[in-house]
Amino acid sequence: MPTTTTKSQTKSDTVIALLDRAKGATLDEICKATNWQPHSTRAFLTGLRKKGFELAREQRGEEGTSYRITARSSAEDASV
User: Fold this and answer.
1) Residue 65 or residue 76, greater confidence
2) Cα–Cα–Cα angle for 51, 26, 35, nearest 5°?
3) What is the pLDDT of residue 60?
4) What is the 3-state secondary structure (H, E, C) of 18-69?
5) What is the Cα–Cα distance from 7 to 63, expressed in whole angstroms?
6) Per-residue pLDDT for 75 more than 70?
7) Beta strands across the sheet bearing 65-71
8) 53: Cβ–Cβ under 8 A, 6 or more apart, which residues?
9) pTM, rounded to two decimals
């Protein structure tokens, strides 16, 4: 009987998927999806910027500030 293994999605993958959406993701949405504290979430976003990701910050009315990936580093593009 063949067994199939699927790679489990990391929290980093989850956050990047949220940030890739057209509407992006709020800090609260990321915190709920990862169970991270807000300061940890902000630190992760800073780390993405240091890795070459460009993040747009937009106001979403009542929901607050939304973050969205607008560009990736060329090294990240090659691995995706």
Assistant:
1) 65
2) 80
3) 87
4) HHHCCCCEEHHHHHHHHCCCHHHHHHHHHHHHHCCCEEEEEECHHHCEEEEE
5) 32
6) no
7) 25-26, 65-71, 54-59
8) 69, 71, 72, 73, 76
9) 0.79
9-31 residue pLDDT tens = 899 999 999 999 999 999 999 99
Whose structure tokens read 């990701």? 53
Residue whose token pair is 């699927």: 6
Q: Are 23 and 68 in contact (CB under 8 A)?
A: yes
CA distances in angstroms from 10 to 7, 14, 52, 66, 80, listed in the order given: 9, 6, 19, 21, 15
How much is the CA Rg of the chain, to the nearest whole Å?
Answer: 14
